[in-house]
Design goal:
mainly beta; six-stranded antiparallel beta sheet; three-stranded antiparallel beta sheet; globular
């Protein structure tokens, strides 16, 4: 599964800030090949949306118990997140009908 997060380079490592089930946040270091970025970094943007590969261990209602690729300093290797923060690994935004380029309507000028 993929866990949504806000990605940032810190000391040469990719770090994801993700949401816990209770609404709090946690940071996890994402090893190479275990994360993806939805946008590119540039001088004006040092944090981008992305995802981290995780293992779903269980689910009760809308709470998912997951294992992280590396332990979080505060929460350890396992955390609970909301099911809406996760998507299947082979799923992309286009599978949900997302547009790659936003279409801006052109209004006629009277």
């Amino acid at each position: 599964m993929k866990l949504k997060g806000r990605m940032r380079l810190e000391d040469g490592h990719m770090v994801a800030t993700c949401k816990l089930f209770d609404g709090g946040t946690f940071k996890v270091r994402a090893p190479e090949h275990t994360y993806g970025l939805n946008d590119d970094f540039n001088p004006d943007r040092d944090i981008v949306d992305g995802w981290v590969e995780v293992t779903q261990e269980g689910q009760q209602g809308n709470a998912c118990y997951i294992s992280l690729p590396t332990p979080s300093l505060v929460h350890g290797k396992n955390v609970t997140v909301h099911e809406y923060e996760m998507i299947p690994f082979n799923t992309t935004l286009q599978d949900y009908g997302a547009q790659t380029s936003p279409q801006v309507p052109v209004l006629p000028i009277n």
